[in-house]
């Protein structure tokens, strides 16, 4: 299983899929589901869903397939390309990064975000971050006409150049670990749900637009009307010097649950998990001998924050894997954490029996 998850993740990381332009990733996931004998459905937004029938509370188990990046904002007469950010792109991590201008499969154009020559950098510039609006992409083309002939237009998606590097100890570094790691885990869960004998009804979904507006999963949840929502995403690893004060989540330390998330910068939304879900994952992890880490963060938000508000309200929880260097071109995860997360999810789903209580007073 570990090698399969690792191979799937590496394959998914190499497929570009900017938020709102996820179709290549969706088709790749659809084909992988078909290969393992699981039928899937795509809605109008591009969410990909597979249904596994059962009895008991209906579960929506989901992760997002999109990635953050850029949109072409302007093409200069000399062929250089200006960008608009899409999602939480860190400006200080952009200079000198390789990118891919996504014109179409087999026609994508590589480029590099320019970094001013060091020999011409003034002393007052050496320790400043250049705003993204002042950056430009050099594709090697020398005129706007040449760029146009390559199929690049205003609105064309741009992502970090897809990349995978295997590090020591079963760790992978590269692009869009957030949240192609979740996709690899869900694909493995689908293999297991396909052959199960019983359990709750599960709608397993790969969702869109999370990095853009967090709401791509909302229409899907409005249609499915789940009783329970379990969302997979990263947990901020805090085991590097720059993150030590943010918590105690360790890369390689096992999967985690979020006990609190809040994003106050314009959204005023977050997730405080339902006590039934916290109890479910705590008791399952203990019974299975799986280390379970705990996270509580401000500045983190997932599409679960909107799914939880559908209908009469959904018993919800964010579950995930530790990840370092979020939203950069080189994110890092540990495949062992993904294996343990898969095992935890399978075991937790098996404990959602027909009379599983979602009454808060049974847990508080």
Description:
With 364 residues, this protein is α+β, with helices and mostly antiparallel strands. It has two domains: 2-67 and 175-362, Aminopeptidase (3-Layer(aba) Sandwich); 72-160, Peptidase M42, domain 2 (Elongation Factor Tu (Ef-tu), domain 3). It has eight helices and 18 strands. Strands 1, 2, 3, 10, 11, 12, 13, 14, 15, 16, 17 and 18 form a twelve-stranded mixed beta sheet that branches. Strands 5-4-9-6-7-8 form a six-stranded antiparallel beta sheet, with no helix packed on it. Helix 1 (2-13) packs across helix 4, helix 4 (177-194) crosses helix 8 (335-350) and helix 6 packs across helix 8 (335-350).
**Helix coverage percent:** 25-40%
What percent of residues are in strands? 25-35%
Please identify which CATH superfamily of the largest domain we are dealing with: Zn peptidases
Order of helices and strands: HHEEEEEEEEHEEEHEHEEEHEHEEH
Count of all domains: 2
Give me the secondary-structure category: alpha+beta
Distance between the termini: 37 Å
* Rg calculated over all Cα atoms: 21 Å
What is the strand and helix layout of this fold?
Elements: H1 2-13, H2 23-35, E1 41-42, E2 48-52, E3 59-64, E4 69-75, E5 81-86, E6 98-101, E7 109-113, E8 137-138, H3 144-149, E9 157-160, E10 164-167, E11 171-174, H4 177-194, E12 202-207, H5 217-224, E13 228-236, E14 256-263, E15 269-271, H6 275-288, E16 293-298, H7 304-307, E17 315-324, E18 331-334, H8 335-350
Parallel strand pairs: 3-12, 3-13, 13-17, 14-16
Antiparallel strand pairs: 1-2, 2-12, 4-5, 4-9, 6-7, 6-9, 7-8, 10-11, 11-18, 14-15, 14-17, 17-18
Helix pairs in contact: 1-4, 4-8, 6-8
């Amino acid at each position: 299983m570990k090698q399969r998850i690792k191979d799937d993740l590496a394959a998914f990381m190499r497929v570009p899929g900017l938020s709102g332009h996820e179709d290549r990733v969706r088709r790749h996931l659809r084909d992988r589901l078909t290969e393992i004998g699981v039928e899937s459905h795509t809605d109008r937004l591009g969410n990909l869903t597979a249904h596994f029938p059962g009895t008991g509370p209906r579960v929506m188990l989901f992760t997002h397939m999109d990635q953050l990046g850029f949109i072409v904002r302007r093409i200069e007469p000399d062929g250089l390309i200006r960008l608009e950010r899409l999602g939480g792109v860190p400006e200080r991590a952009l200079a000198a990064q390789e990118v891919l201008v996504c014109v179409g499969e087999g026609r994508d154009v590589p480029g590099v975000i320019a970094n001013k020559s060091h020999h011409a950098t003034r002393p007052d510039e050496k320790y400043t971050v250049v705003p993204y609006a002042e950056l430009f992409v050099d594709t090697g083309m020398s005129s706007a006409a040449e760029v146009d002939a390559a199929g690049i237009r205003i609105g064309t998606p741009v992502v970090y150049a897809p990349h995978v590097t295997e590090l020591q100890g079963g760790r992978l570094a590269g692009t869009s670990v957030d949240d192609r790691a979740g996709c690899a885990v869900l694909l493995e869960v689908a293999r297991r749900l396909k052959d199960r004998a019983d359990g709750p009804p599960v709608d397993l979904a790969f969702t869109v637009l999370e990095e853009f507006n967090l709401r791509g999963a909302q229409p899907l949840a409005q249609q499915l009307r789940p009783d329970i929502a379990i969302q997979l995403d990263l947990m901020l690893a805090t085991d590097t010097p720059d993150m030590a004060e943010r918590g105690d989540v360790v890369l390689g330390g096992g999967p985690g649950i979020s006990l609190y998330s809040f994003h106050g910068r314009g959204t005023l939304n977050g997730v405080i998990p339902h006590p039934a879900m916290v109890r479910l994952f705590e008791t399952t992890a203990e019974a299975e001998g799986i280390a379970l880490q705990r996270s509580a963060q401000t500045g983190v938000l997932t599409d679960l924050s909107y799914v939880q508000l559908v209908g009469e309200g959904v018993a919800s929880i964010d579950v995930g894997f530790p990840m370092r260097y979020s939203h950069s071109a080189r994110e890092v995860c540990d495949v062992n954490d993904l294996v343990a997360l898969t095992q935890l999810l399978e075991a937790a789903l098996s404990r959602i029996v027909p009379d599983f209580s979602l009454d808060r007073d049974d847990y508080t």
